[in-house]
Amino acid sequence: MKKKRILTYNSLHIDEDIYFFDAGINALIKYENNNGKLRYVSPLPTENILGECLISQLVLLGDKIICVPLNAKRIWIYNMISGSWDYIELGFPDVQYKFMKSIVYNETIYMIPTKYPKILVINAEGKILRDLQEIDLDYSGKAIEDMIWFRSDIVVDDNKIYAACCSADFVFKYDLTLKKKEWICLNTDFGGFSGIAFDGSDFWLSPKKREISKALRWNGHDEVNEIHLNTDFQDGSYRGIVYDKGEMIVKRENSSIVINVNNFKSQRKDRAYFVYENFDEKKVVDYDGNYFYLRDGVVRKIELMMDSRYRSDFISSNSGGVKGIFNKSLILQENIEFQLEDYLSVLIKDKKGNYEQIFNGKFD
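Above: the chain sequence. Below: its structure as tokens.
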């Protein structure tokens, strides 16, 4: 039985089951702990079935799952009782890489932007979603074309959000209690950061530019120190930084660098992570499709592998067949998530099996 690897940006644990959103196609997935199986729940109703990186995070509010949009055009809300979808419209639906992180504070969701121009706030008091609010970033530095605000690794400490800017050497600080925002200039030459983490005393920031081989340790005020990283540009793009039991894990595309926070020594490791977060709880997704999480003090593993035929049937059933796969385009590009064999499987399943249906015309 042929299997297809699944990558996902985030997971949501509800009782014994786990929800994921597929980063390769438009699919909400549920892992059923009682039988150890993955099953497709539903696609987002009006998004392309082959849409990539649609959702960055799943947030539970009452009996609803809030889907934080990365490339999706709306904030989608899944009702677990009725199995139905609702949505909230966005002011800038066509922005790509909208949000990579959100937090919940006092029954309010704060969506932290990557390329979206504002922080979005959803008041969910009493588990009823209320009007969408916006917080202007009021960036105080030099204007930068195609601004990238923040990636997924942020810090929440003492009721304050700290997010490291990807495009400039600033940290954005937002007081959740006082509703006060501040941009803090670190006066370095990094040209932006890929993430920020906190060890209980100091903040650590990972670089954004791949040629930089140093991290930053910051006391939250006026003291900044550079920490050498045992790495080079061949390790690929920086993906962020997380704190884990006395160590800082700097994530790169092809490796990871582990820093001892006491002696500042760093060690390069060949293993790379698609996701490594330790925000509310530790969760890891590697590039082989393995999901690791901590439960009752024990590290548990789930293989995120889906039966290829089941996957093709899901795509076909939710796309309108071949015509839907092309999505009004004359060209369909093969990629690692949807290859020629996947297209042929959809074509075979499509009862019409008629190329004329794709273009509403005939080939000469």
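DSSP finds four helices and 30 strands in the chain.
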